[in-house]
From TrEMBL, chain A:
Protein name in UniProt: Urocanate hydratase
GO terms, biological process: L-histidine catabolic process to glutamate and formamide; L-histidine catabolic process to glutamate and formate
Lineage of source species: Bacteria, Bacillati, Bacillota, Clostridia, Eubacteriales
SUPFAM superfamilies reported for this sequence: Urocanase
InterPro entries: Urocanase-like, Urocanase_C, Urocanase_central_sf, Urocanase_N, Urocanase_Rossmann-like, Urocanase_sf
Source species, domain of life: Bacteria
GO MF term set: urocanate hydratase activity
From TrEMBL, chain B:
Name assigned to this protein: Helix-turn-helix domain-containing protein
Superkingdom of the organism of origin: Bacteria
GO molecular function per UniProt: DNA-binding transcription factor activity; sequence-specific DNA binding
Keyword tags: DNA-binding, Transcription, Transcription regulation
SMART domains, sorted: HTH_ARAC
PROSITE patterns in the cross-refs: HTH_ARAC_FAMILY_2
UniProt keyword Phosphoprotein present: no
Record InterPro entries: CdaR_GGDEF, Homeodomain-like_sf, HTH_AraC, Tscrpt_reg_AraC-type_HTH
Domain HTH araC/xylS-type: 290-388
Length: 532, 391
């Protein structure tokens, strides 16, 4: 251990884990995932953060501004060791042009959701969420299973690469289109996708073969999503489900318009950004029009959180907004119940620690089939990337139970080192085109909740708290808070983890209760969270 | 001292990983843990004895067994239990490492060099060492192992050194030409001519748009990239003579070129000439494809899937499907379907089995699906076919 306490040491290990080549998309540029989501502003900042964390006392707090360490303040042991704000801009200036300009001048950095707060654990991080989304699609439209159904989607980046296993988990067949062959190859090497087709004919043959056998199968096809979708439509084929996870949230540095090769895209983005943006806008309209046509012909179509509808609408195709968003359509009930993507990371680097925790979870939470099925699936199919970790959608009681299990096992010496508890940015996020789309009281754009979430977590015992903007849907479209707490077996850490878990989940529940969801109101009463 | 049980466990794990026999992530970790390793291996090497014929000449089988045991013992001593090894032929071992403990595979890896020297000294033999790429998922070590074999097979001059499989996996955000170069090398090493030619054209467009920059720098860049293409072709087993014959003429012209457009033209023509007019030796690929064809001919009546066929060849479905298509011009499933259709024609024409029985006999569980496929391939339904051709 290099630091003066496990909180600092744990956070340092999480930072380095985010930049591990097994985890990060492009560690040399500090890019962790999601287009350009970075773990720190620049290499100098990484070195400074490391050095500061090593020297940081147990009653001090390090401040990080958009990936750059800016100060160390005296605090107290119950306070966070690290507080960060990332990618935030004053609302009237919160657009990509301003952000890129400031980013080029080295004044800010894009942190995506879990990249800048060092909570990214590789593809597993979104896998269960993806599996749950497709599970809900199956429940609501196909009698509870995707067996014998096929999903047409695209994008095999950090987020999209969860789709093949997510569909397979529900028994379905998926054809994923990805423009970058190296990403396809990487997903195949990591067992996240079963096979690569040489061309569309082969892809459709493989899909149809698996559909007729009712076997789960994932097929990747190198190509441009807009082109392939149109070709599928022109052949008169209608998939059962159509969605998209290309990097449509960023029309310049993420999305690749049809007719432009990947190499040409890299050149044009720098040489002629305006022209590139124009091509992207034109293409995305056609891309979404095709998706709409699939919807008209009976496919289940939804926006998978990359803001593709809004990009098409902003480019002049207003009808795009009739495509439903995945959270409002399929996941809202989970958030009302305070159930969301929780993750724990073994700071020892030993997979045995995660398997030990799996066993306890399988025993303690054996009545929850969603959890037990997921843990069994994850054990069999998902290799660890970097520090061994596990993601699982848990509610408040289950998270508190996990805090107790970890503390107990650490005290008994059954885990090799402390464990970091963290989560994705979903419960109290403000993201009007994704997590908070179509709230019943119209409060979609209210951004007080994530700020309250961050402030409350800071006084409740979190080891790291962040307030950020732009995660998932891009700059100007979301504000969210991150939280990590290190559990080291001590009484202090147990108290901190218990308190912050309660606060963190609680804010998410009351946000949904306040919006008028009866389920959230009921749950908030159960936990004594409401003030009525 | 490692006991015999532990040694057997480690050897078994090495075989399982090399031949892709473990599919469950947790099982991998449990076996790794039982074998006393801190991390699962993530890259494979092949150590082939130099001058094996000479070494084994006139020796009895008993002597060879004893010698191999001595080799294993020596390897175990040097690896300090941080690597797995097993014999994969009478003269070659697979050794599996993790790059956290042994460093990344590459020229700058001193640990592998030192290890090789130590082992050679203790056994008084030299080794050719082939090194595959890193696969973070240990279930794919079979691919790394195949790459390690290929790296040795590309050795021209016979020096028993360390040979690395070319790492062409382009990173997501490298500068344009670096990325293209890596992709080009990768395509050539994987025999994907179509893709290689596509990348050549993309590079040509960029070169042609070079504009008013320093033409000497551009000339050097083109020269360097041509060298890369030539080296990759030779690494892939193409004859050095052929490669040089086709490239040299264009290199002379490159020297005389005076504008970017001309250089772009030369680049494209030289690459086309080298890529299209040289041949390589695909002995491993041919073996795999031949084995797979035999397997399908013997088992077409079973409910086979692409993954199952690939698994029987110990390679990943995606690698296998590409290999098969390159070699035969057909996808695996097209081949299997045509095989089944031929057999179905025969059964329909020569027997009185019902269409359902014929479907089952050629591997289709669902007779309706069989009829649809038959109609698509043969142009008429099974019943019509029987009516016309039954003898």
């Amino acid at each position: 251990m290099r630091c003066k306490g496990w909180e600092q040491e744990g956070l340092l290990r999480l930072l380095m884990n985010s930049l591990d080549p097994e985890v990060a998309e492009c560690p040399e540029e500090l890019i962790v995932y999601g287009g350009t989501g970075k773990a720190a502003r620049d290499k100098k900042s990484v070195a400074q953060i490391k050095e500061r964390l090593i020297r940081l006392e147990n009653d001090q707090t390090l401040l990080i501004q958009s990936g750059k360490p800016v100060g160390v303040f005296p605090s107290h042991p119950f306070a966070p060791r690290v507080i960060m704000a990332g990618s935030l801009l004053v609302p009237a200036y919160s657009d990509y042009e301003t952000f890129w300009q400031l980013e080029r001048r080295g004044l800010t950095a894009y942190g995506q959701s879990t990249a800048s707060c060092w909570a990214y654990i590789g593809t597993q991080g979104v896998l269960e969420g993806t599996a749950n989304t497709y599970g809900e699609v199956a429940k609501r439209h196909f009698g509870g299973t995707l067996r014998g159904r096929w999903v047409l989607t695209s994008g095999l980046g950090g987020m999209g690469s969860a789709q093949p296993l997510g569909v397979e988990y529900n028994g379905g067949v998926v054809l994923v289109v990805e423009v970058d062959e190296s990403k396809v190859d990487r997903r195949l090497r990591n067992s996240l996708c079963q096979m690569k087709a040489a061309d569309l004919d082969e892809a459709l043959f493989l899909v149809q073969e698996a559909v007729s056998r009712k076997e789960p199968r994932s097929v990747a096809l190198v190509g441009n999503a807009a082109d392939v979708y149109r070709e599928v439509l022109q052949r008169g084929l209608v998939p059962d489900v159509v969605t998209d996870q290309t990097a449509a949230h960023d029309l310049l540095n993420g999305y690749v318009p049809a007719g432009v090769s990947l190499a040409e895209a890299v050149r044009l983005r720098v040489a002629a950004p305006e022209k590139y943006l124009e091509l992207s806008r034109r293409c995305i309209v056609e891309h979404v029009k095709t998706m709409m046509e699939f919807m008209r012909r009976g496919a289940v179509v939804f926006d998978y959180g990359n803001n593709i509808r809004h990009q098409a609408a902003a480019a002049g195709y207003a009808e795009a907004m009739t495509i439903p968003g995945f959270v409002s359509a399929y996941l809202r009930d989970y958030f009302c119940a305070g159930r969301g993507p929780f993750r724990w990371i073994a700071l020892s680097g030993r997979a045995e620690d995660i398997y030990t925790l799996d066993e306890f979870i399988l025993t303690e939470l054996k009545d929850d089939e969603e959890i037990t099925n997921w843990i069994h699936f994850a054990q069999a199919r998902i290799p660890f990337q970097g520090l061994p970790a596990r993601i699982c959608w848990l509610n408040l009681d289950q998270r508190l139970c996990l805090v107790d299990i970890i503390t107990k096992l650490l005290r008994e010496g059954k885990l090799a080192a402390p464990v970091a508890l963290t989560r994705d940015h979903m419960g109290a996020i403000a993201s009007p085109w994704r997590e908070t789309e179509k709230m019943p009281d119209g409060s979609d754009a209210i951004a007080d909740w994530p700020v309250l979430n961050g402030l409350l977590n800071a006084i409740s015992g979190a080891s790291l708290v962040s307030v950020q903007q732009g995660g998932g849907v891009g700059i100007g479209y979301s504000i969210h808070a991150g939280m990590t707490v290190i559990v080291d077996g001590s009484e202090l850490s147990r108290k901190k983890a218990t308190q912050v878990t309660y606060s963190d989940v609680g804010v998410g529940i009351i946000r949904h209760a306040d919006a008028g969801y009866p389920l959230a109101q009921e749950i908030s009463r159960q936990y004594g969270l409401n003030i009525d | 001292m490692m006991d015999e049980f532990s040694a057997r466990l480690r050897r078994e794990l090495a075989y399982n990983l090399v031949f892709g026999m473990v599919e469950n992530v947790r099982e991998v970790w449990e076996m790794v843990s039982q074998a006393g390793l801190k991390y699962p291996p993530n890259f494979a090497t092949v150590w082939e004895i130099h001058n094996a014929e000479e070494l084994f000449h006139g020796r009895s089988e008993l002597w060879k067994v004893g010698w191999r045991r001595q080799v294993e013992k020596s390897f175990a001593g040097y690896f300090n239990h941080n690597a797995l090894h097993c014999f994969v032929s009478d003269r070659a071992l697979a050794v599996l490492f993790n790059n956290r403990e042994w460093g990344k595979p590459g020229e700058e890896n001193d640990q592998l060099n030192a290890l090789k020297q130590g082992v050679e000294k203790s056994l008084a033999v030299k080794f050719f060492v082939g090194v595959g790429r890193v696969y973070s998922d240990a279930r794919h070590l079979g691919l790394s192992f195949n790459e390690a074999w290929r790296a040795i097979r590309r050795v021209f001059c016979g020096v028993p050194g360390i040979y690395y499989f070319g790492d062409g996996s382009a990173r997501d955000r490298e500068p344009f030409l670096e990325r293209e170069r890596a992709a080009l090398k990768y395509a050539i090493l994987n025999d994907d001519r179509q893709k290689a030619l596509r990348i050549v054209q993309e590079i040509k467009m960029v070169l042609a748009a070079f504009g008013e920059g320093d033409l000497n720098i551009l000339k050097m860049m083109v020269f360097e990239m041509l060298s890369l293409v030539m080296t990759a072709c030779m690494e892939n087993g193409r004859s050095a003579d052929q490669v040089f014959i086709h490239a040299l003429e264009w290199i002379k012209q490159l020297h005389l070129a005076e504008d970017a457009g001309k250089m772009a033209e030369i680049w494209s023509e030289a690459c086309k000439r080298v890529l299209l007019n040289t041949n390589n030796d695909h002995s491993l690929e041919i073996q795999v494809v031949a084995r797979a064809r035999r397997f399908m001919e013997e088992h077409f009546q079973e409910d086979l899937s692409l993954s199952e066929i690939a698994r029987r060849q110990f390679i990943s479905p995606y690698y296998f499907s590409r290999l098969f298509k390159q070699s035969t011009g057909m996808t695996v499933m097209e081949f299997l379907t045509s095989l089944r259709m031929e057999k179905a024609k025969e059964l329909l024409g020569k027997t009185h089995q019902s269409v359902s029985q014929v479907a089952g006999a050629v591997g289709y569980v669902d007779p309706n699906y069989f009829s649809r496929v038959f109609k698509r391939y043969i142009g008429m339904s099974p019943t019509e076919y029987r009516r016309k051709f039954h003898t």
